[in-house]
Amino acid sequence: MLPSLLWNLSNLHDFATRILKAHGGTFAFKGPSFTNLDFIVTSDPTNVHHIVTKNFSNYPKGPELKAIMDPFGDVIFNTDGDSWKTKKDIILSLIKTAGFERLLMKTLRHKLASSLIPVLDHAARNHDDGGVVLDLQDVMKRFTFDLTCLLLLGIDPECLSTSFPRVPCAEAFDVIEEAIVYRHCVPPWVWKLQRWLHVGWEGKTVKAEECLNGFLEERIREKMVEKKAKESCGNDDGDDNYDLLMKLIVETERLMGDCYSTKGEKFVRETVVSLMVAGRDTIAVALSWFFWLVATNPGAEEKILEELDRLVITQTGKKTFTKTFSFQETYYDDI
Question: In terms of domain of life, where is this protein from (predicted)?
Fold first, then answer.
């Protein structure tokens, strides 16, 4: 089936949709025997619920996926059993709090006002002067990378600005993700040989790992120094100034005890990577598709604008040009 897939790469999403529709929502793809391209694709919500929720323990990732995703380390996406549960519990303890919600809304408002809206305004103002073409997915990936770094690490790499700068840690993240896709598509001996020789995609991946890990480890060590300084002063910010990385380090120390000095920093780094993977591309790609769908469905756009028109009324009864909704306001019973 590989030739048909290659032929439709430029139209992959529509091609996959047609195939899935023709086969009732679930399809077994068969690749050449010398590749690693046998897989099952499903868009059936019942199947998805069964695999990821109802009977999750029956679908381990296994050692093959763990080896493929090794450049990211032991992240939650390639671990099973007790290790997976431990990572999941820690992540939920960090984000299922009022302090994190406040941090999320504060950071989101800041990045909207300082980055995303100015970039889009800049493109719109220059449209009549010859046109500015934006790769919306690139814009959204830059936006979500800045956002996740601010939430997780407390620093802004400033990927998103009108100059669209090159940011080494963000580029390293992209290289690693592309290398993981590459590993899915070739026999294991191919990428393992390249890894050993430091050539091809694997050569790039080794350098990308060093760059990304160095970036994260530096920030973690800085936070450890900050933590010790606060402890010596008896200073505790509480939830009023929520620091996710600090909370993660404290929780990891509690979990590991004396083992933290040998394994703790690696665990913290891999947990941060898990959250970066979850918080960057998933949201960026979903937003890109959302705006594409809105742009190609004027009826839906009109309904969205009508709904927003009702929601942007201020307490004085007047309309406001811009409004950032609170965490609670994003949940409406009639939406």
Answer: Eukaryota
pLDDT in tens, 284-330: 999 999 999 999 999 999 999 888 887 776 555 666 666 667 766 66
Residues 6+ apart with CB under 8 A from 230: 236, 237
pLDDT digits (tens, 9 = 90+) for 224-262: 888 888 877 766 665 567 899 999 999 888 888 777 777
CA–CA dist 273, 145 (Å, integer): 12
Which residues neighbour 191 within 8 Å (Cβ) at sequence distance 6 or greater?
179, 182, 183, 201, 202
The answer to whether 103 touches 242, Cβ cutoff 8 Å, is: yes
Give the closest residue to 204 by CA, choosing from 220, 216, 217, 191.
191
Q: How many CA within 13 A on the CB side of residue 18? A: 8
DSSP line for 30-49: ---TTSS--EEEE--HHHHH
Q: Which residue type does 281 have? A: D
The candidate with the shortest Cα–Cα distance to 21, out of 38, 44, 40, is 44
Cα 153 to Cα 276: distance, rounded to the nearest angstrom: 10
State the residue for tokens 């099973």.
80
Cα torsion through 243, 153, 148, 330, rounded to 10? 10
Q: At what angle do helices 168-185 and 200-233 cross, to 10 degrees?
A: 130
CB burial of 127-137 (b: ≥16 within 10 Å; e: otherwise) equals: eeeeeeeeebb
Centre a 10 Å sphere on the Cβ of residue 173 and count the other Cβ atoms it contains. Answer: 24
C-alpha distances in Å from residue 307, one per residue of 117, 151, 216, 300: 21, 30, 41, 11
- Comparing CA positions, the residue from 267, 276, 272 lying closest to residue 83 is 267
Band of pLDDT at residue 3, cut at 50, 70 and 90: confident
**Range list of β-strands (E), the chain:** 26-29, 39-42
Whole-structure pTM value: 0.86
Spatial distance between the Cα atoms of 310 and 246, rounded to a whole number of angstroms: 40
